Amino acid sequence: MPNAHRALSRLSLTGLLVSLVLLAATWMPAKAQAGAPQAFDARYHLSVDGWPDATIRHHLYREGDHWLSDMRARVAIAEGQETARFADDGDRLRSLSYSSGYTLFGMGKRYSLARDELTRLPDRQTALVALAQQVQEGACQSDCRFSYLDHKGETETLVWRRLAAVPIEVDDKTVPAPTIELTEPGKEDRRMIMSFHPRLPGLLLGLSYDKRGERISELSLMALDTEGATDAN
């Protein structure tokens, strides 16, 4: 079932993130005022038209001298996971490795990208953090392009524009979530709206994906831990 593969392997984001993940952005250095990576352990609620609702765990933490981003989801008949390691060089994020996989009815596939395959563009987990940094930075407002490598190492490019910040409640506090609209060149009938945390790059506060005016999928933050998110537990 290719639709199931896309829904689980692209979340994140990602590609984030399900057949949702229309992540995009040029592999440009993030300026100093963009937020540095910070550890978090989040749970998202994902609804995809025609599929059971799923809970997604998104864990970002420091591992030695680099960062690890891990995203995984499971429903009754399928599960998917992707992991990336990247270094924060101060002026940019540098992809080190990427792996992903899914199973459906007990059968599945695995993919991986090595460091030498990630020198030109980042993987989509790293791209999610880099995109959030660029949105936080606020230098680009419209017709902003963001490119990354999908799980097969193929280039994906999309265009985003800034929308008004959306007030979203996080841990009993309302935060102004920087929000963008993403579209794919040549497929303007599809759009994704993504809201980020204003201080935690890569943390999604909300996401929706529409196709020809119909809501296909929606993601929201269920739980967030920043205190106990510093290791692989």
Describe the structure.
- By secondary structure, this protein is mainly beta.
- The chain has one domain (2-225): outer membrane lipoprotein receptor (LolB), chain A (Clam).
- The protein is built from 2 helices and 12 strands; from the N terminus they run αββββββαββββββ.
- A 12-stranded antiparallel beta sheet has the order 6-5-4-3-2-1-12-11-10-9-8-7, with helices on one face.
- The relative contact order is 0.21.
- The model is unreliable at 1-33 (pLDDT under 50).
Radius of gyration over alpha carbons? 16 Å
**Second-tier CATH architecture:** Clam
Total strands: the figure is 12
Biggest sheet, strands in spatial order? 6-5-4-3-2-1-12-11-10-9-8-7
Sheet-strand content, in percent, reads: over 45%
Distance between the termini: 32 Å
Mean pLDDT: 84
Count of domain modules: 1
The helix count comes to: 2
By helix and strand content, what is the structural category?
mainly beta
CATH level 1 name: Mainly Beta
* Shape annotation: globular
